[in-house]
Amino acid sequence: MKQLTILIATAMLFSANSVVGAPEPAKQTARTKAGLYVTATEAHEMLTNQKDRKVVLIDVRDPVEIMFTGNTEMADAYVPLKIVDPSIWDEENTRYQVNTNRDFVSETVAALDKLGADQNTHVIFMCRSGSTRSGPAADALYEAGYPHVYTMVDGFEGGSAKSGPHTGSRVVNGWKNSGLPWGWKLDGQKMYVVIR
């Protein structure tokens, strides 16, 4: 009986310190080499219950996007994977040109160093919906030698409703729609600033 009690207690302790993790995303651009996926709710749990490991949340959205759609104070750093260039119009896609941040890895590593993180740190990447930026961000850091990189599969704003009165609006899951802490106030010490 004593051995069974110890076994149950060990199992409960193990499950309390782990996050099950979201299933692999269907969309190819959201899949990662590390294969580590979490929902916004799971990411919040990891950030809130840091016991045996350091967990960091990095928001990879464009700074202007963050300013207009909101953010979470739980983000440790903001390093955009892609940046909108309003000086160049993309006629084919009828929008401003979007460029990949060539310094993404070095800027992310610098942000992690500033936070006292290392290659054992669990790094969660968050973009708008979890479908096109957080996965490549996780892959870039994974290739730089960080094995514990997660993509938040539902992102900050979540997915679009497929039917009903809010069809097409981002009202399904995600950080913002899961009742997790967020707001409009920006922390200038964390925000990404382009020095010209």
Structure, explained:
- With 196 residues, the protein is an alpha/beta fold.
- The strands form three sheets. It has a five-stranded parallel β-sheet with strand order 1-7-6-2-3. The protein has a two-stranded antiparallel ribbon with strand order 4-5. A two-stranded antiparallel sheet has the order 8-9.
- It has a single domain, classed as Oxidized Rhodanese, domain 1 (3-Layer(aba) Sandwich), CATH 3.40.250.
- It has six helices and nine strands.
Notable traits:
alpha/beta, Oxidized Rhodanese, domain 1, 5-stranded parallel sheet, two-stranded antiparallel sheet, 6 helices, 9 strands, 29% helix, disordered N terminus
Question: Which helices and strands appear, and what pairs or packs with what?
Answer:
Layout: H1 2-16, E1 37-38, H2 40-48, E2 55-59, H3 63-69, E3 77-78, E4 82-90, E5 95-100, H4 104-114, E6 122-126, H5 134-143, E7 149-152, E8 159-160, E9 170-172, H6 174-177
